[in-house]
Amino acid sequence: MIIDTGRYTFYNKSPCLKKSYFFKYFDIKPRSYIGQIISRIHDYYFKNSSLLKKDFKKYYSKEYSSFEDYLDKKHNLFQEEINRLNRNAAYYSEKLIAERYKACSLLSNDFDNNVISKKIFDILNVNHNKLEVDFLYED
Question: Fewest 10 Å CB contacts: which of 2, 7, 15, 72?
């Protein structure tokens, strides 16, 4: 499951979110040009991630009464999303990149008709018109 709120990306750790899985899924070489683009997109969403519960205990446990309360009030998540993230393997990353440098925009002009870009949009469940990531649930 991946939840993108704009500023944060929340996800439960899964083998299909590893960079090597992306390369295998797209059947590309990591050192190729498209491999570098896939790597950038992966890093944009998953690099420098933090364990949610660890950060909650370290920084927010005195401010919020429970982990669920923290997810609800700090991150404004829905109850269904809170239930899915209420595990030990839930991570999040903060995206501090300007809008025009979003990883998905790398594919918007040059690769619109490319088969690889369509697969990337499909795996990330990207709305082609808005170029924003919606929810992608994997159980």
Answer: 15
Question: Any idea which residue has 């990149």 for tokens?
Answer: 97
| Residue range 38-73, pLDDT digits in tens | 888 888 878 888 899 999 999 999 999 999 999 999
**pLDDT digits over 94-139, tens only?**
876 544 445 555 555 444 445 555 666 666 654 444 433 434 444 4
Cα–Cα distances in angstroms (integers) from residue 52 to residues 56, 73, 85, 87, 113, in the given order: 6, 14, 9, 9, 38
CA 21 to CA 87: how far, in whole Å? 23
Nearest in space to 41 (alpha carbons), one of 70, 80, 2:
2
- Rounded to a whole number, what is the distance in angstroms from the first to the last CA of the chain? 7
Which residues, 6+ apart, have CB-to-CB distance to 69 below 8 Å?
Answer: none
Tokens of 57: 């205990």
Residue boundaries of the structural domains of the chain: 2-133
How far is 75 from 4, CA to CA, in rounded Å?
A: 11
